[in-house]
Design a protein that fits this description.
The structure is a homodimer of 150-residue chains.
Chain A: H1 12-39, H2 43-51, E1 58-59, H3 60-67, H4 71-83, E2 87-91, E3 99-103, H5 105-119, H6 123-126, H7 130-146
Antiparallel strand pairs in A: 1-3, 2-3
Helix pairs in contact in A: 1-5, 3-4
The first copy, chain A, binds a DNA duplex (23 and 23 nucleotides) through α2 and α4.
DNA sequence: TATTGTTATACTCTATAACTATA
DNA sequence: TATAGTTATAGAGTATAACAATA
């Protein structure tokens, strides 16, 4: 099936955005689905494991915020990750309502393997010359800096 | 919550890929979810409507391929789009097993509004100078051309 | 025999609302 | 009263397997 939208972009930035979306759709999504299938994770489980950082416990509600879903969903997602021994719930010292999420050693290993599979640049970027690669990286760094990120 | 992965990239392309993923995650996803909520579409319904092009009927199985899911899922997704009058099933002339999907006038309008909301470049890209915007667009065009796309 | 789309089944994700235990 | 997390519920997406109609 062909691409989604018709051309005629409002600005070079809009066209770049469109091209980035196409790249993510065609390469990023396929790779993500393949990687999580290998590791036996569902998409939200994989996103949760990516968001959680080993050695940095966070409350359930913060994970819900990062995943952009309701707290009640996180209960089930974490249940299944915990069943597989990838994360643990711990009580918070200062507030007994809060449960802190901790990545286990096994979870950290799965998380590392996932990151490894997602890190490599896809073919269209990898094939670019060194100059283009660096220019692309530098422009994107500037974009995110301008927006106050990082 | 902080970003997902640790730094130390294998190449400028790998870092650029990481930055693009961050951009999509932080801006693309939020905008997509807001747009489909306004239009009353679920994520797969919206993806289906994006993939289908008015005036270009395609078989159910081709949509399944474009969505990267099983044929059996498409039955339900299309059922709900058809209930809302956004697409129609038509019989194919040459093979009576096949059903062709057609975007209705109403579906085309919803599809247009969706595309409109997703087309604008997000703030980090829009804030770049003209030179950077054009350079970014040109590099991405080259990347997709090299990979044999478009 | 093989293929297209549907149905049946089971599991996961999703939001909403009601509940608990804390604060 | 308000908040963190759970449970209950209902709707949607997902893959697998079995099926009907057609090729």
């Amino acid at each position: 099936m062909a691409a989604a939208a018709a051309p005629a972009h409002a600005s070079p930035a809009a066209e770049a955005w469109d091209l980035m979306a196409a790249l993510m759709q065609r390469y990023g999504k396929a790779r993500f689905m393949a990687a999580i299938a290998e590791l036996g994770l569902s998409p939200p489980q994989a996103m949760a494991l990516r968001m959680l950082r080993p050695e940095h416990p966070v409350p359930m509600s913060e994970l819900a915020g990062a995943l952009g879903c309701d707290n009640s969903n996180v209960t089930g997602i974490v249940d299944r990750l915990e069943d597989r021994g990838l994360v643990e719930r711990r009580s918070a010292p200062h507030d007994r309502r809060v449960k802190m999420l901790v990545v286990t050693a096994r979870g950290a290993e799965v998380r590392r393997r996932l990151a490894e599979r997602l890190a490599a640049a896809p073919e269209p970027l990898a094939r670019l010359g060194e100059d283009d690669q660096r220019a692309l990286r530098d422009i994107l760094r500037r974009a995110l800096e301008l927006a106050g990120e990082r």
